Amino acid sequence: MSASQSSAPLPEAMSVTLTINGETRQLDVLPWTVLLDLLRDHLGLTGTKKGCDHGQCGACTVIVDGRRINSCMAFAVMKDGARITTIEGLAQGGDLHPLQQAFIDHDAFQCGYCTPGQICSGVALIEEGRARTRDEIRELMSGNICRCGAYTNIVDAIEQVIGADGEAGR
Amino acid sequence: MNRFSYLRASSVDEAVREAAADPTVRFIAGGTNLIDLMKYNVERPERLIDITRLPLDRIAETDGGGLRIGALVTNDAAAYDPRIKDRYPLLSSAILAGASPQLRNAATTGGNLLQRTRCYYFYDPGTPCNKREPGTGCPAITGRNRIHAILGTSEHCIATHPSDMAVALAALEAMVHVAGPDGERAIPISDFHRLPGDRPEIDTNLRHGEIITAVELPPADFSRHYTYLKLRDRLSYAFALVSVAVALRMEGDAVAEARLALGGVAHKPWRDPEAEALLHGRPATRDRFIAVADHILKDAKGHEDNAFKIDLARRAIVRALSQAAAGTPQSQTDKRIK
Amino acid sequence: MQQANAYIGTPQNRVDGRAKVTGEAKYAAEFDAPDLAYGIVVSGAIAKGRIASIDPSEALAVPGVLQVFTHENRPRTAWFDHKFRDETAPPGSPFRPLYDDKVIYSGQPVALVVAESFELAAHAASLVRVAYETDAHMTDLDLRRSEAYVPPKKRSGVKAPPSPRGDAEGAFAQAPVKVHGEYRVAIEHHNPMEPHASTVVYGEDGSLTIHDKTQGAQNSQSYVSSVFGLSSGQVHVVSPFIGGAFGSGLRPQYQLFLAVMAALELKRSVRVVLTRDQMFTFGYRPLTIQTISLGANPDGTLVSIMHDAIQTTSPFEDYQEVVVNWANLLYHCDNVKLTYKLAQVDTYTPIDMRAPGAAIGVAAIETAMDELAYATGVDPIELRLRNYAEVDEADKKTFTSKELRACYQVGAERFGWAKRNPEPRSMREGRELVGWGMATGVWEAIMQKTAARAVLTRDGKLEVATATTDIGTGTYTILTQIAAETLGLPMAAVTARIGDSSLPKSPVQGGSWTAASSGSAVQKACQSVREQLFKHARQMDDSPLANASIEQVMFADGRIRLMSDPGASVTFAQAMQAGGVDRIEAEEKASPGMLTNMRYSGYSHSAIFAEVRVDEELGIIRVTRIVNAVAAGTILNPKTARSQIIGGVVFGIGMALEEESMLDHDLGRFMNHNLAEYHVPVNADIHHIEVIFVSEHEEKLNPLGIKGVGEIGVVGTAAAIGNAIFHATGKRVREYPITIDKLLG
Predict the structure, then answer these.
(1) What is the predicted ipTM?
(2) CATH code for the domain defined by A11-89
(3) Angle of helix C514-539 relative to helix C475-487, nearest 10 degrees?
């Protein structure tokens, strides 16, 4: 396998268009550049975390075209044309997203490393509108591991924001 | 991870044509397993064909009254589709028992069928593995095999297929539609995955260059008496130790038709028509369920860490049949087992 | 009198919260540098033997690959192994990465590939060809049991078991009630969410700024200086945020060595990040086989305690932790015999993991105590009260404070323990058996010598600084609270600087000692600033404080006020202006009191209550409720401390039900080396967890009465759950984690 590999001409970088946190960017990426590494290493958006690099922890969760995904399990070239929201894109001006503030108020993190993934996942969860009960929040937030064990506070934070949304909608 | 060339296919024909010419090619869609395996250097394709732009992302009615799920429909879209939730709730439930919301948003129907085993050794190129490198041996047989198979194993491989979705599809007797260099064909789900035998490196009966285009669900009425019961080492985001998909058609207290598939116990979703036949026309009683379980597991073989799965599978089958017969399917959110 | 800036003991949001929820907080692998090169570690495949050949040529042929470091071409480093010792190293010869061709454990780093990008390095790493000659290895503790030995050299800071007292064997033989069993807790890996990483920024003058994932910036600094023969001025370690560690960052891990080696050799900045799989290739919580014999009278009073532990260590270091000393610390007994032995297996050396020793030792002893409760028919809480240790019998000291009785009482009330029918299998809801169990937790209250600096500037801003880290514990926040309260400033006017080797000396963060140690040092430094400030204020022309002593004034809202006449005040700025200074700076050291330590024993305690629901037919266990009542002296910040306890409980739930690093003894390798198959709790596993801080007046250990809360939450949790499972099912499982197979088996 290796002989043919090292002799084969190297593929060239491909031009892709990504809208990241509202800013549309033309980027040259190699086919094997993973979205997570593009964000962290190439674009300096280190808020998105690498916890396992294999879709097993959720630390790299970002919102692509409105859906939360593990950015470690996506090649950047395949996301050509996508709209991507990372943790850096949630606050509007100086105002935190309500879930960011709720995470602070409920102490829904300790070391903070899983936090951007938890928050992006939570923001998408709220948008999806499928979680109403604590059981539902727990199950639908189970793709985000928190080794510090802040789960109960995370559920409190999300529940508060869902509740507030519900109030507003009435 | 190795380097590869990349092609974004714009039609199924193009994808098939390009793939047929190149033995080192892989199709990529959701990527949730292929990228994973590439990062471990388990898969080293020299060329990836991105099929995500192909028009295979629809769920459509079939003439016969079933549903045709495009290969690129995500697990999330399939699980929450009102038609699937209404007519094939077993499939919806099984999908929601698997992975995480993030993975279900990326993973596709076709890719789910093609995901590879979670065997520790297969994933670790620092160890031998007949599935990864044929002829090197299977250390799982004498090593750590908690998550391994108890049915249909061979002396070369005791890996399991990890999908939840496929277990439900097996019970629903889905057809897998594929397109390839020789045209289109449909493969019954029961013939789609293989047992390891002496060629454990081959997971499915898909031929090189063939692409899954859709999964077809035949018309059926299992929307009242069904369940997907998944048992695992934590309450979410874990692969099954044992899972059971049951679909029953009841007439009064008697079972008119029974379908039962097991996950986590074999190299493919495990069906046993003889065992199912034990239920046909019979009242749905616990003793009957035990007889079914015993029949399914009569040739089960455990190893040091996974022998408990035989007993666990027996209990799970009985419980799942009870749930389905009673019309009280297992919730994937409320972790109390009904 | 109500003080305006009374922050100590009040719930406060984390001061670093905003940085963490916006993604601005930078962790070790997130610092950029010009021309940064990326290193990927190649891990070895065999457990023991030698590298017969290693061929980097294919990797080197990839354009953009800068170097492949192996034992054959690695640059020269310190010759003597003692140069590789760090602040927390156990006795022995530390692992030296790429030192020679010897392979001493599976997963050992055998090469570092450095390239222009992460992707290139990862690709090239897959092209390094390694051939091995294997030797016979042994990783099975059961087969090494007969060769266990008492560690000849004690590990600093780890108490050896005390000498036997009385006649434990004789008393056990004659005891009317006996409990005897073997207990195990599986090997665990820390698995902080942030993988270990080091970014080494190479300065123009050859100096290094290192962003390391560590629990001690100064520990990493002195290790790098010692190993590479650099002066301390050439090495600056800056680690402001640590993505969890739980002990894995107590010692410099091999990515630090490799990144520094490559940076020095290539004369450019290098980052090395371990993969999640590689997080299973260094320290772990060791497998421990514990044998416990409890002899008791029919009323449950203990007449004999014997507790023996055999624990894995590596062939190159004698790791040690306190496993067997806890029973007699909790329970009065005249006949006590405790032994602690090690057995070598061919793995890396274990490393402290959250509540090292206690987490597993107390899990065993508190399971055995539950067995004794059933053997005697005495309620589990009553049994513990009947055996309550009023003094530390082994060390013959009194406790600085001990509100464990109140923990039992308050916890039991909150949990509703009185409604418990002790009969196993007596409680049921629907299909599920319900079980209620309890256990005790204990952890030593430790303080370490620590220095801190406080700088007050005329703009009313205060900066406090010490080298310690914040691994998620809330250190930034509690230091800010202490400083703000001591000087009478709003928290917003205070900045805490930590995680930097150039700051005043601090030990590694661990053992729950950071709040007591760095907190005391910060308090002292602030008090010193206060005194200087007060001096200036008194010397001011017409000072209203001219005749006051410092005891007669209070510092609040940036002013010094006479307590007897709060209207009479001087602002900090006025005082500084009068003194002709723009800044007031003080550096102070806080040390544990020698006399206190000679006379007293200091421990935190807890009572943990667990409710489980068990589907008996299927072996599925749900932990639906935990109440943990903790007595840990002064709770500086009930909000962050509560999170610490909850986190410890979640760790304990993992230990009780899920976590197990599985060794393949044929290969000598951990096999479930990823987060899909090494199961830590997920959100769905965690239900109601209630934390109660029991009021405990502590005045001997340190002026603020701090005991620390980092470990206590995990201690006892697994036993409480195991005991609840017994109550639910009547089945006693003595091996944690209690997985489906063990419950069905």
Answers:
(1) 0.98
(2) 3.10.20.30
(3) 30
